[in-house]
Amino acid sequence: MYVFLLMVSRFINRVSGARHDHEPPSFYGGIIADPMGLGKTLAMITLVASDSYFMVQSEDSSFSGVLGEESCGLTLIVVPPALLGMWDEELMRHTEPRRLPWRLHHGKNRLRHISELANTTIVLTTYHTVSTEWRTEAARKSSMLFATRWRRVILDEAHFIRNRDSKMAKAVCALDSVSRWAVTGTPIQNHLNDLATLLKFLNAHPYNEKRVFDADISHMWKAGNAEEAVKRLKRLAGCLLLRRPRKTVELPPRRDLACHIELQPDERELCNQIRAQTISQIDQVLLQGSQKQGATSSFSVLQQIVGMSLTLTVASRAYLMEPSWNPTIEDQALARIHRMGQEKEVTTVRFYVKDSFEEVSRHHPL
User: Fold this and answer.
1) Is the pTM for the entire model greater than 0.85?
2) Which of 13, 66, 132, 219 suits a disulfide with 28, CB 3.0-4.6 Å?
């Protein structure tokens, strides 16, 4: 991220152009932002396996750079709970028996002491587990996660920590490691701050500090100088983010269809009644300034669940029953079947109700 000028012994920030007299701190790792379905999980498994390869190939223990940093030598992988089984399956599928032994640190299977890490290469845990063990100082002192300096920490679905002020983000950033990798197909979902949180996790100096990120990029964007802000954002991404196009791998063809639904008069009347009731409830909440706990009994999370790194290549047809304001959510959901391992032509069908907000969301996504 910095260029060293030998003649004047100064360092230049390649993103902003600012010059510094002192060498900036190094960081190791980055963001893997390949589109869904291109094998990000396999890439991370390969990265972990490369550690053993280099250690075996070299008899010289005086490594430089990341290999020379002192650590326990193990990789901690943090995932949403729903993906623990998927990681277990991928490790069994792509590694030889006992070559990359792994342990689960979650629920009843939590590891209680560092000694339990013997003969282990990978530890799998969840965001909730990390957050729970960070919550209090007493919990941190007794936690194996925070008592260990990891060789590497990998966040799968790293956008889970996009809220910088959340306990989850603070807990994950408090982990001690030599290198850090954020794996997500959507490093920016709605706001530039989504990326800023990932930079904090990576310790990507100086942009691990939000004030620097805001000063060099966010404020410039908000001030109307979007062109320069985009240039800086691209330069920053070029230093630490890898995103390869879908054409990198050969996938079966995919047909995207739109199905417009015409409501019957009685259905339209019912929808109008529900809309009027919903607007009235929203107005009441706005007037009251709050909502009673438990007042909302249900909500739809189908696309968010499907949007995680689940592999559903056994299917070749996908039906989206309702549109999303955020098109990346739909892309993630559809990538569950149109990805590496799919051998059939894929057909996707999006349903829209004519003359409704669904048509608006289709033509004017966020």
Assistant:
1) no
2) 66
